[in-house]
Structure formats: structure tokens, C-alpha cells
Amino acid sequence: MQEKASFFTSIADLLTYIWVFGLAMLGGAASFVRRVRSGEAKYSNIVELVGELVISAFAGLVTFFLCHSAGFDEMLTAAFIAISGHMGTRIIFMLEGVLVRRFGFENECDITLKEDKNHGD
Biggest alpha carbon distance in the chain? Predict the structure, then answer.
């Protein structure tokens, strides 16, 4: 019986990660469409779209882990995942800033300013 419970737990975990990635990537797609409509990107730029989706999936996954460890409600977690997916690299740099301030890490990376100016999200 333990094997059945373990199997169903694994399936539930897999489905959780699928919806986390899907929701975050939907936020990234919305961000890409917004940039296309504003003239910052072109619909035909598949490489930029794929990059946006990968970054959004990563940001959403990190947000999921943070919300899960903080014990947030599932609906609030879903909203945060979608928002962080839409924010993409901006949320990653914000979290980096929190870590630098909180733990005193040396921030040797100068990409934040360049990324914010070029990306404009």
C-alpha cells in the first residue's frame, strides 16, 4: 500500500510543478505580448519569446518555493507565481538585492542596470 501512496504523491507533485511552470510561462507570454504591442519586440522573434518563457518559468519556480516555505495560501501563491512570471528578470534581480542586503553578499554583477535599461519590463 505504501507504493500506491508514494506513486500518487509523485503524480501530485508532478502536476503541481506543471501548473507552476504553466502559470509562470503564461505570465511571461503576457509580458512578451505587452512588449510586442509597445514596439519593443517583434512577434517573429522566437528566440526572445523562448528566452522570456524560460526566465519566467525559473522566476515562477523560485517564487513557488518561497511561497511554499512561507506557508502561503495556494491562491495567493498562484497569483505571486503569475506576477513573477510576468516580471521575469526584474523579480530575480529584486530577490538578488534582498539577499545582498540581508546576508551581506558581495554583489559584483553590474548586469542589473544594463538589463533594466534594455529590457524595460
Answer: 57
